[in-house]
Amino acid sequence: MALGEAVGLAALRWVASPVIKDVVSKSFSYLGTDMAKGLEDLETTLLPQFQLTIQAALRSPHKDELAKWLARLKIAYYDAEDILHELEYKHLKCRAKADRKKRWVRISSHPIIKPLANVTRKVSQQVSLLSCKKKMLWNQLKKLKEIAAEANTFRDLLSIQSGNENGVLSHKRTFETSAHINHKVFGRNKVRDEIIKFLLDEQEASSSTKSYSVVAITGVGGAGKTTLAQYVYNDEVVKKSFKLRMWLCMSENKDVKERLREIIECSTENKCPNLLNLNLLQNKLKDSLAKFKTILLVLDDVRYDQTEKQWDDLLAPFALIGGRCKIVVTSRNTLFPNTLEPGKLIELPDLEPEDFKSLFRYYAMDGLKLSDPQLKNDLCTIGDQIAAKISKSPLAAKTVGNLLKRSPEKSFWQETRESDNLRSTREVLLWSYEQFDVQLQRCFLFCGVFPKGVYFTAGNELVRYWVALDLFQCTDDNINIDGIGLEYFNMLVACCVFQIVDGKYYMHDLFIDLAKKLSAGDCLRVTNLEREIPIPLTIRYAYVELNNENLEKTLSSICDLRNLRVLILDLQFDTLVNVKKVLRMIFKKFKKLRVLEVRSMGHLVQELPSTVGDLRNLRYLEFWKTSIHELPDSVSQLYHLQYLLLPASIKALPPMLSDLIKLRSIVMYESDYNLVHTLPPVPYLGKLTSLQSLGEFHVSKEDGYNLRQLGSLREIAGSLRIVNLNNVRQKDEAIDARLFDKPKLKRLELVWNESSENGLDLEVIEALQPTADLEYLSIEGYRGSEYPSWFKEGLFLKNVKTLKFYNCSKLTDLPPNLNKSCHHLTDLTVNEFPCLIFVSENELQLDEHQNTLEEDFWLVDGKYLRGQNLNVFDHEIESFKQTGSSQSCPEQLKIIECAAEDLEDIEVELTEDLRRAWWNCHQHRMNFIFRSKIGANKFLLPPTLRVLAISLCCISDGALSDCLTGTAALEELYLEGINTLTSLPSAEVLESLQNLRFLEIGHCWCLRSLGGLHALPNLEKFNVKECWSLQTGVNDDAELPQTLQSISIIGCVVSQAILDSDFPCLQHVAIMSCAGLTSLSFGSLTSLKRLQLVNCPDLSLIHGNFTQHSFIDSLSLQLLPDIIVESVLATWQGCRDLHISSSVMLNKLLLSEKFDTIQNLHIELCLEDAISFEKSDHLLSIKTLFFVNCGIENLPPTLSDFSNLEFIYFINCPIISCFPELPNSVQGISIEGCPVLKERCQPNGPDWQKIQHIQCRYIK
User: Which of 150, 802, 995, 1063 has the highest count of CB atoms within 10 angstroms of its CB?
Assistant: First the structure.
């Protein structure tokens, strides 16, 4: 059979499968016994004989007649399914109205006779409509039966004997679909090393005239070009050598501006601004790339459909940047545009026979568990014979091998060996499709609607489409249909239909080609139409791009597709278009839509027409890549709806949304593609029994929002945060929430926002016993004095990996047996536990504790409490009360409480009386802790712990040492607001923390020593903030580890020699708000990239030896009134980003030859009334200018001297009033938090003419 003929029949064979039987069975459930009578033979006799008839016809000369019959059968099937869908809609509508009537009757206290009469009359009308739909369905099933009966003609024609055909339907082999395979590369090490050598060759890069060089990998489809490029891309040496790596799939011919947006999003990891101008996009990309010294760009599957000019426009930003940039191209072509002329060409050869055999064996046999060794030997022999037979394509070997592994039956392997359909890669791919079960075939066919280069960040994104279209069924109510969909997706990944690149799933272009051919009668992609074209009316899935040029022609071409079920609409208008009118037309024309997805750039779509409620068959509605701010109430009439994907700009959902009882998921996204975890509230949420994701639930005393609403949501999976548990009125509400009966729930957060009026905290948390499969548990604001019984037993914590406690003010200990019951715990947070006290046994045995402080212990002369220090201060009051200060020093406590009454202010004055009062209460607390032995609890933690955060509780030096002694796996440690702590553990303790990479200490007012910090063997990041008694770097034992990559010291006493050593790995240094620091010495910091010196009022001198590596990426010199600028010039050779607050210092730097490389200038925290810029050629290098948090009133007229300035930003500069002329080079301006400037820059304002020529304006 010819390949084209085989493709045509393969695309139709799914019709003659159990999918028709499923529709018939569902129909019978609606028709009732009488109407179904006479159609039984359709289900019991005609359908079971289909496969046997088709198999015989395929071997006969009657294949054309077979194809025509299957096509008619498919249309009849779709028509029956459509009518069934409408019938189901009527039932769902009646049910929703009946539910509303019950609820109305329950809550109404008024006479209801007349309203009930109206409801009864409407229900009667609905029943009449149902009867009409049932008759239509019965007639359509009769038609389906007549077409199905034509199978008898084929039986007679082919002389097929009657027999036992019931088992024929299940002949299709079942494949194991449980897991991804670990993809492995064979025979490409030599060529991989050759490419890597080229990429790392700096001499070659410097010789390039374009600032980038190209290596091209060419070969036929399926030869492994993408696999080899991935092999290079993911190599550890390459990862370390290139600071920015980007992967772009070029299979589809896209507009240059769209490609530039994709690269910008890759380079910034953020959504690209809505820039429509090519120059703006190029400059935006150039600025993004300029931040990286080394760049690797992979252009995968390049087709060269673009012109030379388009390639020049796309790669122009790469040609203009400095530094080392390499481009890897994969392509089937060997001719290249001039812009992509390769410096090295790799024509990918066939694998050596032994390598190919090893590749096939790995995918067919690796991990295959067979109890019969003889069978394994036989399969190995047959497998080698299959490998020798199939084409030398690695893609073919992987695909066939995976399918064989998933069905280790000797007969199937032998049948495969004898097949004539494995001679070419395309034949192999078709053969693999034919091995899929019918449901997976339908899922694969649907993928033909997508353009090449499309990717999914997760499998469930594709599964949602499949579920919404009923492409597969699940007869077991205990099995999640989305889970089945993910298994199917994993099967496609294992068979190389999808390739994983940079964490994204791309469909292989050869499989897309196959899917498009197989689904040609069902799927359509419309793009860049130059004229109206005839489109088959059988089309049911459409991907349509609309732009200003093709709008009318495209709409005219698709308007007659009355059977359309899927419409993915990509709006690419670059001028204003009445999008609402376009959407109304679509809603009017395509009444059978089940999936509607609308994508747009910027703010093109801001409103969803109410006529969306007319799409009664809709199951999937996606508008999250738009800017709509409100959902019309008519959405509540989409009773079939299962998936609703929206933008975060929507702040409220329709009040009747709970009528959509089939809704499975409501998902909202921010504009930067991040998931929103808090959804707007929906009353009577408990009706949505199929809901799988909720995010956050706010408990209210109002009817429809109480905790009972969660009881019926058994399908909730993933994460659930329950807020306002203080609104639970009785224990039964919590019991009825049935958290224990939510087996798919993995993450649970329980939050009390204030004290319960009825003191039910313990009873409520007792009733909220979660599932034993929980992995993450957080408890916040709990006021009970003990843990619930399910916590004590530990049975429900055995799988917990993350455990967090916040503000549990009455608990006096950690959960019992925490180190024994939580076998998998890796992350523990203990925050704001005023009653939690831990002291080591050794400390309790001392006559006097060593934590005594002198009255003048604070070395930092702070005058005000601000920020996090206010939270620490507020917590101290409760801690003092718990440790007896109310009785021992009531007057001092009164002073503190009076000061705390002002905590709503942004700061509290730290008077001498307040200092002395705090000191007295603190001394009493320490005496109370050590003498009463109240803290004799053992602070024992599980050895599996990797992250530990302790804050706002009482832990002594010895207790901290004891708890860290058994945590060798610890990677991150956070200590915050622990005022009973005076020293970090000794070197003996800390040197055992081999895995500790991150240490942060904040607001520990009594901490005086860093202990054995220098002994930490692998510490990479160290942050210390406002530890007022600490002197960093003063003593020899306070040396910092030389492994540090980042250090941040804020609000502490700092030695001038703290960095006067060799720190070969140090990349970032921040020293802020450190009064008393007069000079700062730098040792050898060869890796330094970012330095921040901010608000050090006494700092005057900077010195260090920076002869070779003194250029840094970012330099911040802010609020340094005494700094000697000459010491700055003597220390550094310049920077790319400069953050500065003094115009005097700025002008001195700009006059120096060393600072001619500044590209981004940030004027921040400038307190001058007016600033000026002295004329300098170095202003020409500045591309972006920021004014942030400044008290400037007048801007200098010399802004026009920045003749190459492209973007200018004004952020939180409230009194800027004078706006000079800007240079003509400015392409973008942003004004935010500047009320005076905002008014002046309105269309009728005095400064409007100065900015109206700028293409991109953002004024907020």
Answer: 1063
